[in-house]
Amino acid sequence: MSTLPPRAGRRCHNAINPLHSTVYFSPDLGKELGELGIDDPNAAYFAARSAAMGAVGPGTVTAAFYNFNHDHVARHLPAVWSVAAPQAVLDARLRAADTTLRRLLGEEVIASPELAEAAGLALRAAEGCTRHARPLYAAHADLPVPEEPHLAYWHAGTLLREHRGDGHLAALLTAGLDPLEALVSHTATGKGMSPHWVLTTRGWHRDDWDAARERLRGRGILDAEGELTEAGVALRAELEEATDRMDAAPYEHLGAEGVERLTELGRGFLFTAASAGAFPADLMGKN
Predict the structure, then answer these.
(1) What is the radius of gyration, based on Cα positions, of the chain?
(2) Does this model's pTM top 0.90?
(3) Which of 145, 182, 225, 258 is the most exposed, having the fewest neighbouring CB atoms within 10 Å of its CB?
């Protein structure tokens, strides 16, 4: 039985994860990887997020990332590893995280005791994560923890993000949602990426998107206008509840008081970063 309030772990994740994600929208990542010779933004993303697994090929990344078109992945992997080795990419990613967080949060926050406190809490939560059946988390768990508090916090956010993400993929498989159906149904909630961003970054085409919508309509998950039906709303809620159950361990390990404090701190940092323009204005939405 959980010792935490309902959805406390999810709220904590939602406070931490977006700040981790800022590096993937940051010009600093493109700059750092561009200096290694990786100029294509898609190649940079695949390299930066998968480098902890080593010089993997497209099959591994398609499996671990779940919602990308395999042909899109294969256009960049394994070719990117002939340009830069995984360790060089990891080093560049950490430099980009450093520059990005300093720019978005400001030096006063970077040096604050609150950020050091958050790093300690997030790392303690990550001690409760488990490696089995969680390839992206497990690969990142093998990386050293950075010494500087803001980078330690970002690293812990990486661990917690990928731990939940790996579990979420199991929930999607159980629900019978293929990669694009998962994206389309999430976008229909109003809390997912806009179709423009999905098609631009995930390598799908409009025909693929429309076909996925038709499949979801046939299952009674979307209505004729592309909105979630009652069954669709229930399915998305069940997906998050199942993910919560598979992601409970780190937050149970941290405890209710620690989770509440980490959520409070994380929301403050996220608000500061978002106010500084961390995310594209059209990133989220149904259209």
Answers:
(1) 19
(2) yes
(3) 225
